[in-house]
Amino acid sequence: MTILLIYIVIFIVAFYAVKLVSSMRTSSEDFTSLKTVTFGDESAVSPNRAASIISVFSIFLIWAAFTGSKLIPFHVPGPFIGELGFSYTAMNSLGEVDDAEVTISVYDVQTGEIPDKLDIEPGTGFAINDTYQIVAWRSALVKVKRNDVGGKQSGYKVVAINGQEITPNNELFIDDARIYMTAKGTLSVTPSKGWQMQPVWLPAPETVWSRLIKVGSEGYKNFSLFEHLGWSLLRVVVGFAAGALIGIPLGYAMGLSGWFRGWFDPIVEFMRPVPPLALIPLVIIWFGIGEQGKIILLFLASLWIMTISARAGVSGVKIAKIHAAYSLGASKWQIMRLVIVPNSLPEIFTGARVSMGVCWGTVVAAELVAAQKGAGMMIINASKFQMTDLVIMGIVLIGVIGYAIDILMRISENYLVPWKGK
Amino acid sequence: MKGLSIENISMRFDLLNGNSIQALKDVSLEIEEGQIITVLGPSGCGKTTLLNIVAGFLAPTQGQVVLNDQIVLGPGAERGMVFQQGALFEWMNVRSNVAFGPRMKGMPKDEQNEKVKHLLEVVGLADFEDKAVYELSGGMQQRVALARCLANDPDVILMDEPLGALDALTREKMQGLVLKLWKETGKTILLITHSVEEAVLLGERLLVLAPRPGRIHKEYTLPFAEMGSSMDLRDVKKLEGYTETRDEILSIIWEMEEEIMGRAEEG
User: Fold this and answer.
1) B206: in domain
2) Helix-helix angle A225-256:A205-218, to 10 degrees
3) Residues A259 and A345 reside in one and the same domain
4) What CATH number is attached to the domain comprising A262?
5) What ipTM is given for this predicted complex?
6) A348 reaches B (C-beta below 8 A)
7) CB-closest option in A323, A327, A418 to B77
8) Is the Cβ pair B79, A418 closer than 8 Å?
9) According to a count of CB atoms within 10 Å of the terminal CB, is the N or C end of chain A lower?
10) Residues of A in contact with B115 (CB under 8 A)
11) Which residue of A has its CA nearest to B132?
12) B96 and B184, same structural domain?
């Protein structure tokens, strides 16, 4: 909640800051800048590059600030670490009262150093001073009565903390800690947690980075990082290629022949809305958890998309083009090769882009279920060992590769079908 | 016999709702080689159906089309088509578009290129060979379409509102080009249009079709095409008889349109 608010504040502040800066600069007078109507004119809206940079930057900033990263000098308050103490007032069964000190050292388990038990004076009176150790972000039951003289007798109770009265089922706050008295009269001490995230929930950026370096050089679970990602990619490419190899000719046949369309329409229209993930259980039952099953799953994921896009590509041919080719003396085969196929390429490319995206998502999901290598296997395995840094690293890499695939498809689209949309 | 003859063509087809449409009824027409004929009529009179039958894309329910003693049974390279728009192949550059017909015939590459170069000069697009068609303006695209059709050296050129999508100025320029090509190549041209002015200017013979069923209502023999091939079209429009002819035909078409509207209102 706090994070969301901070994010919104950064969003608004950055907006006005960038607006201020750009208003001070003399803007070039391009055509769009002269438009008076921009609200509702989609062509007048272009992404503000400064906003993109600040957006990415602020995500890292918030991530770093809330994880106590060493990359930036300022953080939100972290958990309390060090020594905290309070005094308690105990009343024994005879109604006498005595004070004693409790000293707690709160330490960070991530550093690997467990502090020595503190040496303390026992103090005077029947209430004896205590010392405890608590791990940061955790709370602990502090049984102050245990070492007190007569502390095990019924009627012996703690009545005040630092002079403030406390009763069972109530809490009070001292500096850097919250103290709660349970129904049985035991104190539960929670040192201040601060606003930072525990590393097990969200590790700092540099932890993720060093994990990347480590896994990149040493590998994970018998396979190098390159092999994990490479296998995922290979499965996608093979599954997609198989889907395209069958799907495109099938789509053409459906676009060109009434028999094929009638025959395959019910199958394609039925299978298209079935998410590939829903096929995982059946594919595992039929083909097992090996490579064969995964490739068949990806084949099925891309097959219908490619079929439909090829069919749409054929239906999209303007009849005038076909007529023109016939009156120029082209044969059926020449029309297929020189008119129908090139005319359907833009549609097929769109289908291929969608299909690659779906396949990449499906392969990760399939690897989550069962695999020995692959990006999905890497993160599901890491999550079982609470290696959150590896999980986040894997997610980032999966995202980067998915993005890269899409950019690659778009570049090759511009290069191979430049007439698209013209 | 040389030339194109349309013999007694009728075209009737059933609709899904059980009704049937008589698109054409007993249309007969003799076209001599080298004539340019324009066909005019209100919308829905079967102009395009007629052209598609001559091109061989549709089979008439009665009658036949005979070109140079050969009955037309399907599309063929001897009947070239120029469409209104969007019939060029965007994935090919201008050269490949124009060379499409010769390539289908298996003409050697050098000859193809020579032919393309020559034809692009004829239509006023010299040195545009390597341009992509989507980079060209609408008028230029129609010039390419004309060149592509001519490259195949057809006996008859069928034009389906070839200038319909162009702006007025470009259209006027292109009308001059059509007449120039007609004169230079001596091709038989059958041109369909919905512009009365264009039909009067370009037609040696002008056919007015009447709707429901589509039939030949009236035929004119006009001098303007012949003159237009050697003088400015704007001057042709000032010639005696042009305005009168145009207005006469215009009122015929208007009458037909109003009749259609009236029948539609009656239900």
Assistant:
1) no
2) 90
3) yes
4) 1.10.3720.10
5) 0.91
6) no
7) A327
8) no
9) N
10) none
11) A419
12) yes
- Percent pLDDT > 70 in chain B is 99
Give the closest of B86, B91, B100 to A328, CB-based. B100
Q: Does A421 touch chain B (CB under 8 A)?
A: no
Q: Are residues A251 and A295 in the same domain?
A: yes
Query: What 3-state class would DSSP assign to A63?
Result: helix
* Closest-CA residue to B162 (of B183, B186, B190): B190
Tell me the backbone φ, ψ of residue A243, rounded to 5 degrees.
-60, -40
Residue A199 maps to a domain: no
A73 assigned to some structural domain: no
Regarding whether A329 and A256 lie in a shared domain, the answer is yes
Contact A329 B90 (CB under 8 A): no
Best CA proximity match to A104, nearest among A175, A22, A152, A25: A175
How close does chain A come to B259, measured CA to CA in Å? 31
A339 has a chain B CB within 8 A of its CB: yes
Residue pLDDT, tens place only, A266-320: 999 999 999 999 999 999 999 988 889 999 999 999 999 999 999 999 998 999 9
3-state secondary structure of A173: strand
Inter-residue contact A158 to A166 (CB < 8 Å): yes
**Residue that finishes a domain, picked among A191, A217, A232:** A191
| CB proximity A111 to B under 8 Å | no
CA B68 – CA A92 distance, rounded (Å): 127
How many CB pairs below 8 A link A and B? 72
Q: What is the pLDDT of residues A133-145, one digit of tens each?
A: 888 888 999 888 8
Count of the separate structural domains present in chain A: 3
Q: Look at residue A23 in the predicted model and tell me its pLDDT.
A: 82
- Inter-chain residue contact B77 with A419, CB threshold 8 Å: no
Q: Domain range for residue A52? A: 2-65
pLDDT beyond 60 at B241: yes
- The rounded distance, in Å, linking the Cα atoms of B55 and B65 is 9
Residue B119, in any domain of the structure: yes
Residue type, A73: P
> Do A213 and A176 share a structural domain?
no
Task: Look at residue B238 in the predicted model and tell me its pLDDT.
Answer: 83
Q: How many domains does chain B contain in total?
A: 2
